[in-house]
Amino acid sequence: MVTIGIRAKPTAVTFVVVDGDEIRNVEDIEIPRAFDTPDALKYVRNNLLDILREYRVEAAGVRVTEPSARSLNIARIQLEGVIQEAFASSSLRGYYVGQIASISARIGMDRSDFKKMVDGENKLKIDSWEALSKEAREALLCALGAKNVFA
User: Is 63 helix (H, G, I), strand (E, B) or coil?
Assistant: First the structure.
């Protein structure tokens, strides 16, 4: 099954496409600085829908802001909303919205190990883990969790 995991930040969206046990793509959708908010949101939505079609993604997960975050980043939250809307408008068979606890549960990992893994510990023995950014690691964990979206 082809899955995708996504992690947004205010200026870009990181995604990882996984096909079975193989990582097919790790990439950022960089938002051009010249775009105002509506154009930036439309840009991300359109690119994401193209990616879902290109890779024939069946299930997806998006890492969202923790409700207890000290400071909320409005731009990131807006992107997370548009990503969810794109999922709902796509041909995905299923998707989930995850925070640390729910992503960890989906991949059968203790919640306390999530941050350690994002910071570099490779408990799942994934090739090229060290080369991935923190955002890409979170997106990869989301993609792995998407394998269980139908469970």
Answer: strand
